[in-house]
Amino acid sequence: MENLITLVNKLQRACTALGDHGEESALPTLWDSLPAIAVVGGQSSGKSSVLESIVGKDFLPRGSGIVTRRPLVLQLHRIEEGREYAEFMHLPRKRFTDFAAVRKEISDETDRETGRSKQISSVPIHLSIFSPNVVNLTLIDLPGLTKVAVDGQSENIVQDIENMVRAFIEKPNCIILAVSPANQDLATSDAIKISREVDPKGERTWGVLTKIDLMDKGTDAVDILEGKSYRLQFPWIGVVNRSQADINKSVDMIAARKREREYFANSPEYKHLAHRMGSEYLGKMLSKHLETVIKSRIPGLQSLISKSISELESELSRLGKPVAADAGGKLYMIMEICRIFDGIYKEHLDGIRPGGDKIYSVFDNQLPAALKRLQFDKQLSMENVRKLITEADGYQPHLIAPEQGYRRLIESSLVTIRGPAEAAVDAVHSILKDLVHKAINETSELKQYPTLRVEVSNAACESLDRMRDESKKATLKLVDMECSYLTVDFFRKLPQDIEKGGNPTHSIFDRYNDSYLRRIGTTVLSYVNMVCGSLRNSIPKSVVFCQVREAKRSLLDYFFAELGTKEVFIEFFLSPSF
C-alpha cells in the first residue's frame, strides 16, 4: 500500500512538470483525478502548526498577514534510517538538511512566481521530506482564508483566495482537512463553512480541532470531538500545538508531541478520547485513509491515463508535422512556434482573449486605494508640522514664509508614495506572468515539445523580470522628481497672509501660533493631494510603457538572440518528451 502513495506522488510531480495544475491545463487533466488531502483553515487557525507537528519539523514560513501565497504540495516519505532531508522539485539535485533553509526557499520560490506584491498564484510548490519520523502521506497546504486585504494587495484578494481553495476542495477526489480553533465558535469557522458548501454530507471532510488547551476556563470541546455538535463521517481529531512561546524558544517537536500525549491522557475531560487524539494519530489516520482512497480509484486512474494517451497520440498525429532534418529548418520551426505563442500573448493584452483587463483594475482600483490609505494626516499633524518648521528655521526664524519647512514637510509626505508605486509595478508584473502561463497553455503547437515549452516559459518570465526592474526604476523616478522640484505656481496662487510668522522674541517652540501652523499643514496637504492626483495618472503610463508595451514588443527578443548561440540545444528543444 505504501507504494501507492509513492506512485501518486510521482504522478503529481509529472503533472506539475507538464503544466497540469487542474484548471486551464494544456493536457487532459490527470491532476484533478489524483486523490489528495487539502489542508484548509483560516488565518491563525493553527494550520501551519498542525502540518509541522505531523512532519516533526519547523519548516513553514511564519508571519503576519497572508504567508502561504501558493499551494504547497507536501510529500512525506518514510525512510528506515538515515538523516532527515528535504528536496524541492524546482531544485532536483539539491538536498536540504537545514529546515530553516527550507523555510527560506519556500518564501523565495513564492516571490519568484508572485513577486513581492503579496499576490497569490495557483502554481504549486512541490516539497518532499524524507524522514524516519513521518508516515507516507501527501498534503496540499492552501493559503489561509481571510476576511481583510492587507496593504499591497488588491481589494479582491479575499475572494481570490476563497476561489483558489474552493477550486481544490470541490473536486470529488479531494480529501478535506478542515482545521478550526477550539477557542472560537465553530459556527464561525472559515474551514467548516467552505467545507460544508462543497461537501454538505461531510463524506470527504476530516475535522481537526486546534488550540484545545487555550479554551476559556470551565469550557471544553468534548461535544465537538464526540461528533455531537457537528457530525462528520470521520471522527474529529483534537491536537495541541506548540504555543508561540514554545516556537520562540525552538522547543523540540518530539518533546512537543510528548507533551501533547500527556495533555490528553491527564485531562479529565479528554482522557476517554486520548487514544484517538494528537498529531501522531492524525498523521497515521490520514495516511491509512489516503491509501484506501487511492486503492478505490485505481481503475478510474488507469482508464483516464489510457484515454489521455489515446487522445494525445491522436493530437500528435493531427499535428504530425515532421521536424526538419537540418539545423536551419529546426531553428525556423522553433521561431514559428514562438511567434504563435507571442501572438496569443498579445491577444490577451489587447482584449481579444481574457486576462488583460486585470491590468486596468490595478490602475483603477488597487493604486487609488493604496494612495488613499497613505496616512498624510499623521505626517501633517500639528506636532510634526511645528517640529519640522522650527527645525528648518534653525537659529533664525523665517521672514515671510517658512520655505525650507514647507519643502521638508512636502518631501517627507511624498516619499511615502513610493510604496504604492512599487506595489502597482509588482501587481502588473504578476498579471503579465499569469498571462504567459495562459498563453503557453493555449499554444497547441507547444504541446508536442515539452522541453521547448519550458524554455519559452522561462525566457518570457525572465524578460518580464527585466521589464519589471526597469519599470520600477522609471516609476520611482516619477515620485523622486516630484520630491526634488516643487510646482511654484501652486504656491504663487495662494492668498498672501498678512501675518509674517510668529514673534521672534518668543521661545523657538512658541514662535508660531496654532492657526498659522494649521494653515501650513492644510497648504501642504493640498499640494500633496495635487501630486497624488498627478501620479495616479502618470504611474500607469510609466508601467504600461515599461512593462505592457515592452512585453508586446520584445517578450522573446532575448530568447531569439540566444538561439543562435544554442545550436547544440535546438534538437533538444524539439524533443517530444523529457
UniProtKB/TrEMBL annotation:
InterPro entries the UniProt entry points to: Dynamin (IPR022812), Dynamin_GTPase (IPR001401), Dynamin_GTPase_CS (IPR019762), Dynamin_N (IPR045063), Dynamin_stalk (IPR000375), G_DYNAMIN_dom (IPR030381), GED (IPR003130), GED_dom (IPR020850)
Domain Dynamin-type G: 31-299
Pfam families: Dynamin_M, Dynamin_N, GED
Intracellular or extracellular location(s): Cytoplasm, Cytoskeleton, Phragmoplast
UniProt entry keywords in alphabetical sequence: Cytoplasm, GTP-binding, Hydrolase, Microtubule, Motor protein, Nucleotide-binding
Molecular function GO labels: GTP binding; GTPase activity; microtubule binding
Highest taxon in the source lineage: Eukaryota
Domain GED span(s) in chain numbering: 517-578
Gene Ontology CC terms, in alphabetical order: membrane; microtubule; phragmoplast
Location (main, coarse): cytoplasm
Family of the protein in this entry: Belongs to the TRAFAC class dynamin-like GTPase superfamily. Dynamin/Fzo/YdjA family.
Protein name: Dynamin-type G domain-containing protein
